Structures are given as C-alpha cells and as structure tokens.
C-alpha cells in the first residue's frame, strides 16, 4: 500500500467496547476516498481515531510516513491532517471571522492564513457576506460552511469530512456538495463519510464499506460500480 494515510490492524472503541476490529485501509493512494455503511458501525469512530480523539488499542496509523496513533489532535492538525466533525461543533458566540481565524492557529497555517482565507471565501461566498455575524444565528447549512471553512484555514494536506450534508435541505445540500467538489478540484485529497452514495460516486472512485467495525468491501478505481451495485453491497446482497 502507498497511500498518504495508512491504517493497519486498527482496533479502537469506548470503555470496554471495541468498535473497530483489526481494520486496515489505505487512503490517498488513488485520490479521494469515500466511506459508507450503516449507522453505528464505526465510521465516525474511525475518523476520531485517525484524528487523535479516540485512542487506538492496537494497530498503527501513519500519515505521510509519520506514526500518529494516539498523538494529540493538535499535533495531528499540525501535520496537515484536518477533521471537520459531524454536527459542525463551533463556538456559538464567535463571529464567522473569529471562527475562521481560529483555524489558522498552527505555525503551518499562520504562514498561509491570507491565502487560505481567500480560498475559503471563494468556495463559500456567503461567509464573506456575513463575516461579523455570530455562529448561533446561522442556519444549519451556514454553520456547516463555517465548519469546513475553518478546516480549510488549517492548511490541510488531507481533509476529513464526517457527513457534511447531514440533515440539510436539498438546495443547501446541493450547494455543499458543489463546494466539496471545488475543494477536491483545488488539490486537497478528501476522506468523506456520507450516506449519499451518488455524491460519493461523483467525488471518488475509491470507496470503503464499513460494517461491524471492519472493511466489508473495497471499491477501487477502475471497477465498474453504480448506485444499485453499492446498495447491494450495503445490504449484504
């Protein structure tokens, strides 16, 4: 395997419960990667383990050749591996501008703060229009834009998005999907958890089905897959 992010025999969970079981995958060797599968089967736990938010009990995680399993989230972000979590967990009483500024806290990001701000505002022009508006006054879709925009301010070498369109109205969902495709077109490799399989197929030809904390199926670039094929895998047919 030769991906930017390599996960080998990873086991992780909460309390006495293992959620991930000896999971192995290579991410970034073929561009973007999409993760899909039933709710509660380990997708978010996997992202949290990669980001240092959940401890690895065994196995290894390497990013750009560096061992990052059980490193601090701060040090992992400093390497350029940035996670925009599910539910856009932002500081509600900060303005859009203040939230984006927080994303540029690492030395790596501060050196590129102006360019990153221009990129984020080009992808999400609404943020510029409401620069001084507090996050708590925004809609769910607008908060998701702030969350991803803040992640872009961290100068990601790889960006992880956990269900970026979850719970959004169709029009806003379409807008977010276009924005994610724009980010990809700008050269940032993405790892995206998403229930919208059509969107995942548009974003990436490399998909993993996560089921019961393991890789249940891998779809590699070049394999012919459509929505019906994906659904058959999803439901175990």
Automatic annotation (TrEMBL):
Calcium in keyword set: no
Keyword ATP-binding recorded: yes
InterPro entries (UniProt xref): AAA+_ATPase, ABC_transporter-like_ATP-bd, ABC_transporter-like_CS, BCAA_Transport_ATP-bd_LivF, P-loop_NTPase
Ranges for domain ABC transporter: 5-237
Keywords from the UniProt entry: Amino-acid transport, ATP-binding, Nucleotide-binding, Transport
Domain of life: Bacteria
One Gene Ontology term of the molecular function aspect: ATP binding
Gene3D superfamilies in UniProt: P-loop containing nucleotide triphosphate hydrolases
Family statement: Belongs to the ABC transporter superfamily.
Name of the protein: ABC transporter ATP-binding protein
């Amino acid at each position: 395997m030769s991906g930017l992010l390599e996960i080998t025999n990873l086991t992780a969970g909460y309390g006495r419960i293992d959620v991930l079981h000896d999971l192995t995958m290579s991410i970034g060797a073929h561009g973007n990667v999409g993760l899909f599968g039933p709710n509660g089967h380990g997708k978010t736990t996997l992202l949290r383990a990669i980001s240092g938010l959940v401890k690895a009990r065994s196995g290894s995680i390497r990013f750009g050749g560096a061992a990052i399993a059980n490193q601090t989230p701060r040090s992992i972000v400093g390497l350029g591996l940035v996670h925009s979590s599910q539910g856009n967990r932002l500081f509600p009483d900060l303005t859009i501008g203040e939230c984006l500024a927080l994303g540029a806290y690492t030395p790596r990001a501060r050196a590129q703060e102006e360019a990153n701000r221009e990129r984020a505002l080009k992808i999400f022009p609404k943020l510029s229009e409401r620069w001084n508006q507090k996050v708590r006054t925004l809609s769910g879709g607008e908060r998701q834009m702030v969350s991803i925009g803040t992640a872009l301010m961290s100068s990601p070498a790889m960006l992880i998005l956990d269900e970026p369109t979850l719970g959004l109205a169709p029009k806003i969902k379409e807008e977010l999907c276009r924005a994610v495709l724009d980010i990809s077109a700008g050269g940032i490799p993405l790892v995206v958890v998403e229930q919208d399989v059509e969107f995942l197929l548009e974003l990436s030809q490399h998909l993993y089905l996560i089921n019961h904390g393991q890789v249940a199926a891998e779809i590699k670039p070049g394999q012919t897959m459509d929505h019906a094929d994906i659904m058959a895998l999803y439901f175990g047919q």
